[in-house]
Amino acid sequence: MAEAVFAHTALQKGLQSRFIVDSAGTGAYHIGEPPHPRTVKLCTDNGIHIEHTARKIRVNDFDEFDYIFCMDDMNLREVKRMKKSTKNSKAIVKLFGEYDPQGQITIDDPYYSGEEAYRDIFVQITRCSEAFLQSLEL
């Protein structure tokens, strides 16, 4: 969801050409799978194109991307641990929720929750996307 919402937000602001946006997990649970149907429906209902195949984060991601955002502390610790094994990585690793103007630092995984949780996370990710772009002063 975060990948699609951020890409859409950048597109709406005419900034899509400045970003390569991708998503990856720290676990191998869903490799090769499409986004969850509730995520697809929510994005589609909000006019957001979503097309992704799940993958696990790779060591070369730390050289390929300027930012690697995590959704929660557990993933942040794992990604920072992985970054230590890279040399001269340019990637800034942090929680995406640090950009939430409402101060909700953790972006919870709505997978085991209902529709309302998906909507709440969608709204939070939208806030974070807009605030991050604003922070870059593009």
UniProtKB/TrEMBL annotation:
GO terms for molecular function: acid phosphatase activity; non-membrane spanning protein tyrosine phosphatase activity. GO terms for cellular component: cytoplasm. SMART domains: LMWPc. The active site is at D109 (proton donor). Keywords: Cytoplasm, Hydrolase, Protein phosphatase. It is found in: Cytoplasm. Residues 1-135 form the Phosphotyrosine protein phosphatase I domain. It catalyses: O-phospho-L-tyrosyl-[protein] + H2O = L-tyrosyl-[protein] + phosphate. InterPro entries: LMW_PTPase, Ptyr_pPase, Ptyr_pPase_sf, Tyr_Pase_low_mol_wt_mml, Tyr_phospatase_low_mol_wt. Belongs to the low molecular weight phosphotyrosine protein phosphatase family. This is 4298_t:CDS:1. It comes from Cetraspora pellucida. The lineage of its organism: Eukaryota, Fungi, Fungi incertae sedis, Mucoromycota, Glomeromycotina.
